[in-house]
Design a protein that fits this description.
Layout (H helix, E strand, L loop, with lengths): L1 E6 L4 H13 L8 E6 L14 H18 L2 E5 L3 E3 L4 H8 L4 E6 L2 E10 L2 H13 L6 H7 L6 E3 L5 E2 L28 E3 L6 H18 L1
Parallel strand pairs: 1-2, 1-3, 5-7, 8-9
Antiparallel strand pairs: 3-6, 4-9, 5-6
Helix pairs in contact: 2-4
Length: 217
């Protein structure tokens, strides 16, 4: 299996200290190959939807389109993800009968972690996303808008964990307040640090989840 990702200087610490080492504790290079694209910084801070965000998403979509032309099946993962237990077999089993299987994001498809088959339908999907996402806020909105082009499903939200599916702030949003102690499910396989504002807070949450995962294991 090949996992594709991308990162720039703002996200380098997450890739080097969480993504890559946590994956290598579970899988060897022979079992799971990482194809990581390092690219120039397009935003000033790396924060979601800040100036330059669309340029970073263009690079991300190019990585996905490259994957679609290189391999029959692959996993794409944002670099703000850490891995705890083997997960590839679960992704492949869930992909059976579908073109794409994504992490769940409050009932929608998450563009930050998914398993995908390379075929004409998925190539049309991501080419369509690339042409239209700038007019649709971001790539994830476009993914969900054009998901009718493929057959899709979502992964178990406890195992493929993000706090957005579970945490509700006092202001009725699902963005972490940067202080609440987050205890992950005991069957967690990976943690995606979205629904967090700012790279420093993403790293803070990654550390918290890693520490608390050891407690619930």
């Amino acid at each position: 299996m090949i996992i594709y990702t991308h990162y720039s200087d703002s996200h380098k610490e997450m890739y080097e200290n969480f993504f890559k080492p946590s994956l290598r504790k579970i899988y060897s290079k022979e079992e799971v190959l990482i194809k990581a694209t390092y690219h120039k910084q397009t935003t000033s801070s790396g924060s979601f939807m800040s100036s330059g965000w669309h340029e970073s998403m263009d690079i991300k979509l190019d990585v996905i389109l490259t994957a679609l032309n290189e391999t029959e099946k692959f996993i794409f993962a944002d670099c703000d993800i850490q891995f705890f237990k083997p997960f590839v077999s679960q992704v492949l089993e869930s992909l059976e009968g579908y073109d794409i299987v994504c992490q769940e994001d409050r009932g929608s498809l998450c563009a930050g972690f998914f398993g995908c088959k390379s075929n004409d339908r998925t190539k049309e999907l991501f080419n369509t996303i690339k042409k239209n996402f700038r007019q649709m806020v971001n790539d994830q909105v476009a993914l969900n808008n054009f998901k009718h082009l493929v057959s899709s499903t979502t992964l178990d939200k406890d195992q493929f964990y993000t706090i957005g599916n579970f945490f509700e702030n006092k202001d009725s949003t699902f963005i972490w307040d940067n202080k609440s102690n987050i205890i992950p499910p005991s069957n967690i396989l990976l943690h995606h640090a979205n629904y967090v504002v700012g790279v420093d807070n993403k790293i803070k949450l990654l550390k918290m989840i890693k520490q608390n995962e050891n407690m619930v294991r």
